[in-house]
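The records we work with from here on pair a chain with its fold. The integers have meaning only within a learned vocabulary of local backbone shapes. A complete example follows; check for yourself that the lines match position by position.

:::
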Amino acid sequence: MSMPFNLLYSLDAESAQQHIYRGYELLTQGKPEEAIEEFKIVIKLDSGNPDGYAGVGDSYFAMAEFKQAIEYYKKALERAPKSAVLYRNLGMAYSYEGDNETAVQMWERASKIDPKMTLLHYNIGYYYYLKEEYKKAISEFYKEIEINPTDAPSYFYLARSYAALNDETNTLKYFDEYLKYETDEVRLKENKEKIELIKKILEEAKKRKAEEKKSKVEKSEKSEKDK
């Protein structure tokens, strides 16, 4: 007598779940090639399960094989089109492949699905920062800080965006916030040097502006006297 189909499906699903756990266990142990084999068993057992494809994608990502990661994340999304995590990971893979425009599109989709997911707005903001679109960058960094008020990198690049716009007040304000929340000692040391340099540049620009204003006033007064 053959086993009922529903029971067979149930056993396959249970077995697939075990292979998913095993795959991620191997991945955390730094064995992505072995993890891929586990996840591919999941795909064979249950081709409609997005976790098998996502696991292969995560494994290729860990191996820095981003084209393959993209391929499998896309397959996972075909089976789970409302997964913010998959869109976020797909965006990261595109970013590492150098396709930042597509990466931003993926992160924006993820944000629409899960508006509270961290790092999405930081990533988008950093993209705009590198493009020197500072107002757009500022908007994204504010959104990230609203979700995660202690995110030091967002404060750092928010300050740098304001510095690029010569807004001394907000530059200093958000550098202070950065210094308050940064926990990485190495990064803190490096960025403190950058902050001091930026402060010096802003101060010199402020002095130069004051001197130009003074010079204009003096020229105007001289012109009036000459009349």
Observations:
- The radius of gyration is 26 Å.
- The first helix runs from residue 5 to 28.
